[in-house]
Amino acid sequence: MSDKKTSFSLKPDPLVLLGFAVVITGIIFLVYGFIPQVQPHYYLVATGSVSINDTYTPETYFQSHYNGSDPMNLVQCYPSITGWNCAGYQQIGTIIVYGVSSRYLGLALMFLGIGAVFAGNRLAPFKPKPSHIRPITVRIDDDICVSNSVCVSLAPNVFQLKKQETPTIFAPTAYVVDPSAADNDTIIQAAEMCPTGAIIIEDAETGERIHPPLPKG
Ligand code: SF4
After folding, report:
1. I need a labelling partner for 159 at 20 to 30 A (CA). Which of 32, 122, 188, 205 fits?
2. Atom of ligand 1 nearest to the CA of 146
């Protein structure tokens, strides 16, 4: 029997978070689509045309000239070539309606959001991490270090000048004491201030050069 375990964990990726937001929005739309809504129920009692009239709105004109026996509670008019086409309605009660289109929209959003969650989770490991949070390696090129201690003054816990056992005519070059003793931004700033570009920073996982930038081409 195999004891191999499979695990699934969600990555805090922007696409994953966006997917969750879309899923939640979809759930809201879906639930809304099942909420009964009471709406007035109308019965058509009259239709007619109204010519363009500057004195009255077409609804007012249509209603004022209605002489049927059934009460007219609602008038709706739409523009036509000659003026307006109007229809009058009597409210005969209420009906329960559901936002069916809201259900479809909610389902579509949920599928879209779930897709975004899975896509974001799969793609997250392949996205380059910002330089301030990715693990880095730091080294110094002794051949071009001019021992001016700029890096030591900016990040003393990371860089120090080598101690000389015996006096020589050469100034001691810098070395890396502890690359984890400062945040990446501080180390990168020290590297940028190094006058000779002797501090070399690379991504610890991919080996990608972070500083100094490699020549293009
Ligand atoms: S700043 Fe650059 S040149 Fe100066 S000591 Fe540090 S590594 Fe050497």
Report:
1. 205
2. 3
